[in-house]
Amino acid sequence: MAISRAERPARTRPTGRLTDSLSATSFHTTRHNVHWLPDFDIALLLTSMVKIVGLIFLVIMPMVAYSVYAERRVSAILQDRVGPNRVGIPLTNIRLAGLGQPIADGLKFLLKEDLTPGHVRKLYYWMAPALVLIPALLTCAVLPFGSELNLFGHSVPLVIADLNVGPLFVFAIASLSVYGIVLAGWSSNSKYPFLGGVRASSQMISYEIALGLSIVPVLLLFGELNLVQITREQSQNGWLLLPISFFGDGPVIEWKRLLFVIPAGIAFFVFMVAIFAETNRTPFDLPECETELVAGYHTEYSSMKFALFFLGEYAAMIIGSGLAVTLFFGGWSLPFGIDQWIIGLNDGMIPWWLGLLHMGVFFGKVVFFILFFIWVRWTVPRFRYDQLMKLGWVYMFEIALANIFLAAGILLLFRA
Amino acid sequence: MATVVVKRPKLSLAEKLYLPALLGGLRITLGHAIRILRGRTKVTMQYPEERWDSHMPEHYRGAPALVTDEHGRERCVACQLCEFICPPRAITIKPEEIPSDDPWAKVEKRPRAFDIDMIRCIYCGMCEEVCPEQAIFLRKDYAITGLTRGEMVHDKSKLYQIGGVRKGLVNKWNPLK
Predict the structure, then answer these.
(1) Would you call B29 and A74 a contact, using CB atoms and an 8 Å cutoff?
(2) Which residues numbered 44-103 in B keep a CB inside 8 Å of some CB on A?
(3) What is the pLDDT of residues A113-128, one digit of tens each?
(4) What's the angle, vertex CA B53, arms to CA B48 and CA B59, rounded to 5?
(5) Which terminus of chain A has a smaller tally of CB atoms within 10 A, N or C?
(6) Inter-chain contact B37–A74, Cβ cutoff 8 Å?
(7) A46, A231, A233, A32: which is closest to A154 by C-alpha?
């Protein structure tokens, strides 16, 4: 009793000081006074939390769910069918063109029996679905999904982590998801998943090289690895593949940028092929090709664990689209440097509605790319495995490598 | 054993590049998409809302049913020919005598119970063909559903409800049939 009474003042003192200082002034001026609190910005922490939760659970996850729906509807349209158009609001006859389907599917996945076969390696079998989904969601941290949002006098940059190694971070984390697939294939302890896992690992490793090399020309031009800066530059001087800017600082059409469209176009092509291969989508869906391997690496999975593989694949597709948009199509920016004109009208500030519009533009472009992914998937037949490897190592790798020299040559030509 | 040496086809540069074929494929699928979005493609009938009913051909054989004549008399005289001819034995008839005070006492017999098990029925139409009294007909009802096996057995009242009234002579060679 005596000890605790003696301790009590010592324990309460910092808390008291914190509340006093909080009531006296704002967060920013007081954070150095709180000696036991590490030196960081609480406002940054809170906005980051809001951005993480908002982006993952309000944007990416619904987008994943609805891209599954879009996949089914668009494939139906491409194949002269109708697609899921029944599920609407439950217990009513309101159908909403089947927009309730993803919710029904999600509920079904949650409520189904979660079967773990007796012959699997339990630890890795349980770990694998998470290892596929988590890297796919982690990579969205560096994507600038909007310029900045000016609310209540605070400017919130619309990117979770403003890293200086954006694309490298994305590639590093995204390539981790191959572990999930390999573990799923191996731990299932069964022939087809094993073959799927082996195929997935060799395919992803092969195309990662082309993927990494393909964006080098882009980085050469911008001299920058920060995705926020890359997007801002495209907002001022026109998109990489549409280098026309009426309102930027420089001329309307800059010769260097115009000529650079050639290597940028090649880079974009190689990048897209590599993204298709990385996300295991047709024509590169050999790890799970239904006609040969039942369902590939997720043959032995059921219920929510199967759904996690599914979510991971679509999340990777969305992130890949986001990266392609950010690097080649100006991210959140409007075409022809219109952003600069609006910002100029508003005394150099980005008004709140423009911030929201930038978010809409970014996700609109991403949706366009997702539709393109779906379009290609329901058009192109699957490659044979040797064709896939030959395409990756003999063509894409060489094209990407030669493209770097082409880009460097153009930059050398226009050296100031 | 004859060996056939198949020569590999010589591919042109465009074919080797694969890209023209890829773009051609994308063009084809986009064409299909545009056609269906403009309502130029016929798609599957949306069943519960759109039905076959108006397109049903004359010779369609649906659920068998019993009919009454214009006087309200049940035509069936419980001769049990349909029960005997029925290939899957779906029909069960329990005959009874018509009491003498009944206005149709001269017909002598009528079915007390007439059950057709619609799980067994194969819609062959032999019952209709064999009936000397033109009492059983195949109607155009096709959506015979039920939640239990019991529900799928059509009893006499159900059969008369589907069948309704059929006018005309009891004549096997009547053009009305």
Answers:
(1) no
(2) 44, 46
(3) 888 888 888 888 888 8
(4) 140
(5) C
(6) no
(7) A46
